[in-house]
Amino acid sequence: MSRGNTVSERMDYKYLKPKPGSNYRQLFVNGRIRAEILYRETVGPEPLSMEEVAGEYGLPIGAVAEAVDYCLHNQALLNEERAREDARIKIAGRDQWPYTPHDSRPKA
Question: pTM of the entire structure?
Answer without folding.
Answer: 0.76
